[in-house]
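User: Some background: our group keeps a shared notebook of sequences we're curious about, and every so often someone picks one and asks for a predicted structure to add to the entry. Today it's my turn. The entry only has the sequence so far, pasted here. Could you supply the structure so I can complete it?
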Amino acid sequence: MHRGKTPLLVSVPHAGTAVPPDIAERLSDAAKPVPDTDWHVHTLYDFAAGLGASVLIAHYSRYVVDLNRPPDDESLYPGQTTTGLVPVDTFDGDPIYRDDIDPDVSEVMARVSGYWRPYHTALRNELDRLHKLHGHAVLWDAHSIASQVPRLFDGRLPDFNLGTNGGKSCAEDLAQAVLAKAEAAAPDYSCVLNGRFKGGFITRNYGAPKSGYHAIQLELSQATYMSEGPPWPYRIDLAKKVRPHLQGFLQTCIDWHPA
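Assistant: Of course. Here's the predicted structure to add to the notebook entry:
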């Protein structure tokens, strides 16, 4: 955790690749490379601390426990295909565990206690600290995903997928200010607000605009900054073009003040 001086906290819950040995030895061949990682997102946002933002980055893979799912594993997108609190299938639908021997309830609860809860405790504490200092806090939940995942959505994803839980997780003028920044990136990049990805548990749980907590998720298309096939390399030539836009989004969040 890096503690900043502005009202902004950048959360990066899915860039972790670590898997404890006792879990790693049970993973299927398809899951061992942890293909559903939000690759390099921590690198993309390595300027955030320099802007004065607080930064919280996960260490463990989402295959250990998904930090952006509720602890009771309630579906965030009822009726749509998604992955759970402790995923048992990859985004492509391959089993994560050898011989389809999935973690039982007691193991899931242990992972929530050992990995999920510490991240959320740190997140909550830092948001409260920022809120106390500034009178409000803004949470930017930073994600990325392959531009095409047929099992999860049709067609090709827009480049910038902003989510505010349908307008419930942050002030409308803040959402519109960030959206305007995203729209200004056209024609090089496409964008949408509250499209397929409206924000996961983190956005929905911590965004409480009436109490001065504002949360926005960005699901960034991985085609904007990396090669999408294994071994998923970072593309400096692409990243240097998209990073100024990400910096603009964060600066907008830092400069914004409640009406």
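Suggested note for the entry: Residues 125 and 131 are 10 Å apart (CA to CA). The chain has a mean pLDDT of 96.
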